[in-house]
Amino acid sequence: MDIAQEGERDHVQDHDHVIVVAGDQGEGEGEETTMDGSVDWNGSPCLRAKSGGWPAGLLILLNQALATMAVNGVSINLVTFMRVVMQLDNANAAKHVSNWSGTTYVFSIVGAIIADSYWGRYKSCIIFQLIFLAGLVELAISSYFFLHNFSCESESGDTKTCRTPTAAEIAIFYVAIYKIALGNGAYQPTNTTFGADQFDEEHTKEKRSKTAFYGYFFVANNLGSLVAVTFLTYIEDQGRWAAAFVISAAAALLGLLLFAAGTKRFRHFMPCGNPAATVGNVLVAATKKRHLTVPTQVEKLYEVDGTHSVNGGKKIAHTPGYRFLDKAAVIEDPSILLPGEQPASRPRRLYTVTQVEQVKCILRLIPIWLCSIIYSTTYSQMSSVFIEQAQAMDNTINKFTIPAAGIGIFEIIGVTSFVFIYTFCIAKPLSKRSKEPTELQRMGIGLVISTAAMIAAALVERQRLKHADRYRLSVLWQIPQYLLIGASEVFMYVTMTEFFNDQLPDGMRSLGSAMSGASMSAGSYANSLIVSLVMAGSRSGGQAGWIPQNLNQGHVDRFFFLIAALNAADLVLFVLLAKRYKAVAKPAAAVAIGSIR
């Protein structure tokens, strides 16, 4: 593919020279090419009218909805599959699912680095979708032939009639689901960023569309989840696992074909080098040059001429924080290199101001990212303990059986509803008064709502235990906790993806999307650790523990209260860190963002 060739990079860096303007540049009247440096399939500057925009964005949104449907056809009921087919107890099933979910999001970091550094986002999306599809096909085939005994009833929880899987069958199962984890995990952050790439952030109208795209991307996620929760989980709860997995594979294939259909329409950006290598090199250089004094005049630090840095991305202005890192840009021997010069062979241990600022951007985001981990433990309950709680409740309404995972539809309703509620009932009125909440304020609101969600879940569990000896509480009691988590996602995950992408430079934006996924990963692992510690501590003295096989003998309510307390403590820490955070300065021509429009 032409856009992946390094020889085109210099051509991309000079894109400002091929822009033709015949009117108001802010509105793009008369412009023939985009202003953000994007290129088409052939490596030429993109013509605005014939590339990107909503035609390309819509294909990516459809692709995302189908991919989400496919992966949720596996993930939403995976804890049930682990318990019924793989014959694990409740605590171990929850831990295995948390570990699988965590690994999925770890792969998001891998995918982001590969996309930004080597393959480019388009090629990465194609290859990882193929791996994802291969895993789904393998899971469907293995389930049909030897993983599932059709006499096993998932809803009853009876595993006595289930044949124990052999070691070979278990191995095939785990290979399949971890292929799915690799393919979907590595593809997701790249797809988010690639979709945002279809909108020129240097253009006023497209800048607004780019902000809106993040909100609609999460709506597409939830529409795909809606089909999985209402349709695929029903099939799976009938014991027809293979059929559900075949449908998931078909959805992934259709999504891949739709993505491929937009190939000639998509806008592309050149890979800008390995961000991990940049971070490591700058840290090493600053450490080795620790004896040097940073000049008070920024102009004396090393930077190349022009609008782009050495890695092809836009230059970043110097900021006063983390001054120790500035040593990496200090010129040791002025006779060899003067500021602004770019020789054929750059001296070792010398990096540009832009490269140093890239590292600073990441370091500033790490504390905010760490605070999102506890929130992600709340999110991970929906694929583990919430489902086990639902299985201990009455899931019939007028002889209609609701799948244990089916109540998760209200999380989808919560997300979808609050995207539009925030957009039209909160953001739009407040923006007219210039009082719209900042991204960090919205994330704080998300933490408050998630704490309320876990308190609601704990109160429902207490009510369920109170009446467990007489009757089973209706599963509809779970609706508030799902709605609240859905609302919190709008303020937390939607905003966090937008925030990280906004605060990182051009060549690291897939990493920004991946950081949101990495938060989910760390939250899943943290949840697995918390479950292990809780079970180890609560089983002392011969007790059944908080999350036993029979939840009526446990105290899941205490577990939920514990997560709520951790969320509350995390909120306090987040507020302190958010007040100290210094945002990256926006270019003068950029449109301020902070809402979903």
TrEMBL record:
<comment type="similarity">
    <text>Belongs to the major facilitator superfamily. Proton-dependent oligopeptide transporter (POT/PTR) (TC 2.A.17) family.</text>
</comment>
<dbReference type="InterPro" id="IPR036259">
    <property type="entry name" value="MFS_trans_sf"/>
</dbReference>
<feature type="transmembrane region" description="Helical">
    <location>
        <begin position="559"/>
        <end position="578"/>
    </location>
</feature>
<keyword id="KW-0472">Membrane</keyword>
<dbReference type="GO" id="GO:0022857">
    <property type="term" value="F:transmembrane transporter activity"/>
</dbReference>
<dbReference type="GO" id="GO:0016020">
    <property type="term" value="C:membrane"/>
</dbReference>
<feature type="transmembrane region" description="Helical">
    <location>
        <begin position="241"/>
        <end position="261"/>
    </location>
</feature>
<feature type="transmembrane region" description="Helical">
    <location>
        <begin position="400"/>
        <end position="422"/>
    </location>
</feature>
<feature type="transmembrane region" description="Helical">
    <location>
        <begin position="126"/>
        <end position="147"/>
    </location>
</feature>
<keyword id="KW-0812">Transmembrane</keyword>
<dbReference type="Pfam" id="PF00854">
    <property type="entry name" value="PTR2"/>
</dbReference>
<feature type="transmembrane region" description="Helical">
    <location>
        <begin position="480"/>
        <end position="501"/>
    </location>
</feature>
<keyword id="KW-1133">Transmembrane helix</keyword>
<feature type="transmembrane region" description="Helical">
    <location>
        <begin position="213"/>
        <end position="235"/>
    </location>
</feature>
<feature type="transmembrane region" description="Helical">
    <location>
        <begin position="58"/>
        <end position="81"/>
    </location>
</feature>
<protein>
    <recommendedName>
        <fullName>Nitrate transporter 1.5</fullName>
    </recommendedName>
</protein>
<feature type="transmembrane region" description="Helical">
    <location>
        <begin position="102"/>
        <end position="120"/>
    </location>
</feature>
<dbReference type="InterPro" id="IPR000109">
    <property type="entry name" value="POT_fam"/>
</dbReference>
<feature type="transmembrane region" description="Helical">
    <location>
        <begin position="443"/>
        <end position="460"/>
    </location>
</feature>
